[in-house]
Fold this protein.
Amino acid sequence: MLDPLITLTTDFGEDSPYVAAVKGVILSVNPRARLIDLSHQIPPQGVGHAAFFLAEALPYFPAGTVHVVVVDPGVGGERAVLLVEAAGQRVLAPDNGCLTEFLRPLPTPPVVRRVTEARFWRPSVSSTFHGRDIFAPVAGHLSLGVSPDQFGPLTDSWVRLERPEACAEGADLVGEVVFVDHFGNLISNIPAGRVERPPERIEVAGSVLPDCRWVRTYADVEPGRLVALTSSAGLVEVAVAQGSAEERLRAGVGTAIRLVGCRR
Amino acid sequence: MLDPLITLTTDFGEDSPYVAAVKGVILSVNPRARLIDLSHQIPPQGVGHAAFFLAEALPYFPAGTVHVVVVDPGVGGERAVLLVEAAGQRVLAPDNGCLTEFLRPLPTPPVVRRVTEARFWRPSVSSTFHGRDIFAPVAGHLSLGVSPDQFGPLTDSWVRLERPEACAEGADLVGEVVFVDHFGNLISNIPAGRVERPPERIEVAGSVLPDCRWVRTYADVEPGRLVALTSSAGLVEVAVAQGSAEERLRAGVGTAIRLVGCRR
Amino acid sequence: MLDPLITLTTDFGEDSPYVAAVKGVILSVNPRARLIDLSHQIPPQGVGHAAFFLAEALPYFPAGTVHVVVVDPGVGGERAVLLVEAAGQRVLAPDNGCLTEFLRPLPTPPVVRRVTEARFWRPSVSSTFHGRDIFAPVAGHLSLGVSPDQFGPLTDSWVRLERPEACAEGADLVGEVVFVDHFGNLISNIPAGRVERPPERIEVAGSVLPDCRWVRTYADVEPGRLVALTSSAGLVEVAVAQGSAEERLRAGVGTAIRLVGCRR
């Protein structure tokens, strides 16, 4: 039998000992666990960032993988810890909406539990580090084969983040930036499948981008050119070939994007 | 039998090939080793940072784990390489004090050896990269089951870092910041267990923090508020809810902290 | 039999979901793969940086390791994906020169294939994320034991980066910075083996470094002093003991280095 996979996604950074403590606790509960770092560079308290990140990461993992998500500004407060089974994945996450985008497209509703059974937690639980004291030992026990129903009761209430929806206005599509990646590419909420023809022009934050070409990939233009294209997540993206659109356009999450004349 | 765990803690960063070389050498000696990254973001030459980090990380690992610590400004000079057995952990580290805080609270003295047996090293040892040439192959052999006494002689002399001690002054507790975490939380050397009642006020660097509340967790206040609380390491911490106390207060390691009127 | 090792080297950073997606796809193809992060902090589109990095990292790994390299500004364009067998390693990389320095010193020519067999790819291949859609599944299948010749035809044409060569001028050696490491050490293209005696003086960008000593290791001088020495890769390096030569000298890749009077 394969040793179980447990992934980790946090906003802990790597200069602090928090990731290390989580790993130690998991391995102390289940020394066979295979730990996979997804990211410890989610921006601090970046629940929205985590939501996009998880939607583009979790679906690629083998069925049965346990995912530990600790982006948790509400730690120690009223928010629940959730154990979610969906699309074959098993996810531990704070109930703050960080799973919204992962769950949104799924054809069947997830099975969601509130993690309440303290017998699986560390004997002493701090009020500021549930990653170490609750998430890690629960992930360890889950990976040992403890049935999800042992960790707490089902719930059908959990936090969803609001998401701005792209919309059509005449021949235009209008949306906004929902994620800025490591390269400074601006990823919008406009599904590329709704673009029926190359836009006549592209507006970012209300200004027309001069010379922005609609392309298939970055390498279709010389380095430094502005382009719009289909992102690897199937969304419209504004980028600078071998550069940063974030810096060039001083844009970020929430910046308006308009594709003028892209619909028939 | 379980494949052995070897953790890595360095100040190498991830843009340089040094972490990769260490991993390659370990796996060439013991292809079964399971490598666990603790951090490669210890600040360059940050021995004091590493000392705090290791104290909050190593104790959580299963007994028998091998820990490789390479924060080593003295590489190639007179400093020894130590192999330390303590609290069930086995640690390879330069003799520069980086294990001070890990070892301090232990009830029994550690077994400490100087790593001198060159037959376990790489055949050619550079004077600037002992991580690759000494620590990595020794960790590999240790994880293969070579007995610690094979690597060098016992010693009872090793470097300890001085640590500022918190102290009581009348009804106050006085200490200083000893660690700043990734979130900008200021962690002091004041044991939270010595706080007998919520302080009347809190001074940082000699100035009273207006409106700083003593709380149980960050979520007890609205985002942006200054708080003081018990850190996950059991020390008094000054933080900004969903913000950075480091930036807000322009404080850092060594900044004075005073809890006024917290003792009966 | 040992579970196969697959290393990852990318410029993806860790704030984006790209590394996670690559890991998920590999593990979905081969759930037994053992993933080893080498770096996700190669500078964006830093092909030259990757070339130095890989030369100092790959040779240390056990024979048979699969290395996935995705520093790929040409993604989706005409550049090929290569599968290279060399020095016992198996490397998947874009054909952009990033393997130049790894391959240069090898005594026997590598076996190089163009990855063309789409049956090993993800069913739908994006034009901007071949790491996920081609490299990851090919690495997974390779690690499962699929023979390299299944992935595509042999080629003897691939991109090599130009490399500036150090040269002798009278009693001097003249070269330039080819890599700046995480500590700000300036690593030149001058082989330390060509230095016959300590240089009389050292010039960086045409200016003599006052007080720069030729030493064996950083710890030979007090912190803050400029030194020149043999790097762990056997090249001449200019450094500041416990400091950053990059910052002190405002130098970088391409900065001229002259060792005056170091040859007999």
